[in-house]
Write a structure and sequence with these properties.
By secondary structure, the chain is mainly alpha-helical. The protein has a domain of 65 residues. Helix content is 67%, strand content 0%. The termini are far apart. The relative contact order is 0.10. The mean pLDDT is 77.
């Protein structure tokens, strides 16, 4: 019965949606990584045209790795129950202006 209760609680908190969002993000990052590697292998630049294929491939690979690291950071924070803004200063606005 505890298993069903934990599963029900997870469903109510939206855990499956978060899991599928992270899986989707990883697939998008994998596609960007494949595009960057393909750009490195080809002699003719199909992606940017103005920049050498070597540099554009490295740039796309760098963007893909940055997005992968951000997604892993988000997964770790969510698995530990932390918010995305953990450790960052939060800006709070007053509801009424001060006089």
């Amino acid at each position: 019965m505890k298993f069903l209760e934990r599963t029900n609680n997870a469903l109510q908190r939206g855990v499956p949606k978060q899991i599928f969002d992270h899986i989707r993000n990883f697939l998008i990052c994998a596609m960007l990584l494949a595009v960057g590697i393909n750009e490195l292998k080809q002699d003719i630049s199909l992606l940017f045209g103005l920049i050498s294929s070597k540099y554009s491939g490295i740039g796309v690979i760098g963007i893909a790795f940055t997005l992968i690291l951000l997604n892993i950071y988000g997964c770790v924070n969510l698995s530990h129950g932390l918010s995305y803004g953990h450790g960052l200063p939060r800006v709070r606005f007053r509801s009424t202006p001060q006089r």
